């Protein structure tokens, strides 16, 4: 068995990728058995399942974008937020890859000091930049612009990933179900004031989490995007580097199917 640090911010990103991919693969296997109804279709749906596993897709994103651990982990929080607001939405082999690249794009811009252009995110994700721009806007609307969550919430997702891993090869010594030892100098400073759990939206109050097994969904007071946020994300979508970074001779296995 492999021991992992108690604090999610200190975990090796390769181990975190294994944990997240394991969770998503199991979720996809379950949801792929659910019949796809016309009313369930979203912008995240592909015509066919991409020819790359979620594990390899996440590794590709980590390799070429230097995504931070918090941005990977908060994708699980976003899944719960979207599933609560869109009861017909399921994370399946047709939606997972597009959801992941949209989540990484949004969280990197919202949480990190440095991030890539949409052109690079699209190239790494195997979709066109125009399509990524549409997915980004759709993603922000579906999460109601709630980009932040507390460190305690992310810690709970992290501990739950370890606890429910299919092979049981990881363990966290001395971890609690929530909280845990949190470092004050993590890579990404999460919002701990506006995002404290308060009175949930009425329609979300009794919903359970898709990812956090047997845990209530933690939600926040509705907060619409500010003018600055709208302007910022519009600018990010249009941003182009004078010399766009090139992904070094890496095949694009998703471009034809996504």
TrEMBL record:
Bias kind Polar residues: ranges: 237-246
GO molecular function, one term: cyclin-dependent protein serine/threonine kinase regulator activity
Record InterPro entries: Cyclin-like_sf, Cyclin_PHO80-like
Pfam families (alphabetical): Cyclin
SUPFAM superfamilies in the record: Cyclin-like
Cellular component terms per the entry's GO annotation: cyclin-dependent protein kinase holoenzyme complex; nucleus
Sequence segments annotated as region (Disordered): 180-203, 237-258
Domain of life: Eukaryota
Protein name: Cyclin-domain-containing protein
Annotated source species: Mycena rosella (Pink bonnet)
């Amino acid at each position: 068995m492999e021991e992992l640090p108690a604090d999610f911010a200190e975990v090796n990103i390769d181990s975190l990728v294994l944990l997240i991919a394991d969770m998503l693969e199991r979720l996809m296997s379950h949801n792929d058995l659910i019949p796809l109804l016309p009313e369930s279709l979203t912008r995240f749906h592909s015509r066919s399942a991409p020819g790359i596993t979620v594990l390899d897709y996440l590794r590709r994103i980590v390799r070429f974008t230097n995504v931070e651990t918090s941005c990977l982990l908060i994708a699980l929080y976003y899944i719960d937020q979207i599933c609560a607001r869109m009861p017909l939405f399921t994370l399946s082999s047709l939606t997972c890859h597009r959801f992941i690249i949209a989540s990484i794009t949004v969280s990197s811009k919202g949480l990190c000091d440095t991030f890539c252009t949409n052109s690079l995110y699209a190239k790494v994700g195997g979709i066109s930049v125009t399509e990524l721009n549409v997915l980004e806007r759709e993603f922000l609307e579906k999460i109601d612009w709630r980009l932040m969550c507390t460190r305690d919430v992310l810690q709970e997702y992290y501990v739950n990933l370890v606890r429910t891993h299919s092979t049981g090869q990881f363990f966290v010594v001395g971890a609690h179900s929530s909280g845990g030892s949190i470092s004050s100098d993590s890579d990404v400073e999460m919002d701990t004031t506006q995002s404290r759990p308060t009175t949930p939206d009425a329609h979300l109050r009794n919903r359970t989490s898709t990812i956090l097994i047997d845990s209530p969904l933690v939600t926040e007071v509705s907060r619409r995007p500010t003018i600055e946020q709208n302007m910022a994300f519009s600018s990010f979508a249009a941003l182009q580097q004078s010399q766009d970074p090139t992904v070094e001779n890496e095949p694009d296995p998703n471009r034809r199917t996504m």
